[in-house]
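Session log. Operator J.P. requested a structure for one protein chain; no other inputs attached. Running the standard single-chain path with token output.
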Amino acid sequence: MFSEDDLIPVSALQHALFCERQFALIHIEQLWEENLFTAEGRLLHERVDVEHHESRKLFRQEYGMAIRSLKYGLIGKCDLVELYLDRNGNVQDAIPVEFKRGTDKEDDVDRVQLCAQALCLEEMFGITITNGQFYYLKNHRRTTTEIDSALRKKTIDLCEHVRYLFNKAITPPAIYDKHTCDRCSLIEICMPKKVGSGIKRVDRFIQTQLQLSRMECEQ
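Structure written below.
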């Protein structure tokens, strides 16, 4: 079990899976810069936070719900949690709903975030959660994600890796990747093309010096 001081943000998992350099710049160096995508996402989440809570006899919606897990050392907030209650008001099931500005992604970056939320809710309410949902603003529809054993393992393993990155407190070098970097709000801070090309030149220099050293030894 982790203490309150050792909890890491659920968002850090998403950032680390997207790009470990982005994770380090945000969570270790405390840097942040907004672009169109992050601004739209922030406005969407602010709108979610002021939504009215819906409550019926055996059903309740909680917006902006604070969550945590001492077992996995996580802390965060859910955009929306739909709670299903028994006649005594005890939570029998919960569905985390994460709001996203775009459309469904092919990778697991968002799904890991949703699974981490589910792990927190399971611990808080003593239940087992089988699925979560995304609400995509672009097409105004929900999609369901199964919280299966493979996704759980990937999320739990990532928790351990992110904690290692926090403890190591080292920012990885920049390596430009068009698919990742061009979507990142920190591209002007990170400068992956400039920094990455410099690293490649250093690598080539080191390789050349090693080859020359080997040639001298062989003579």
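Operator note: The beta strands are 8-9, 55-56, 59-69, 74-85, 91-100, 131-136, 141-146.
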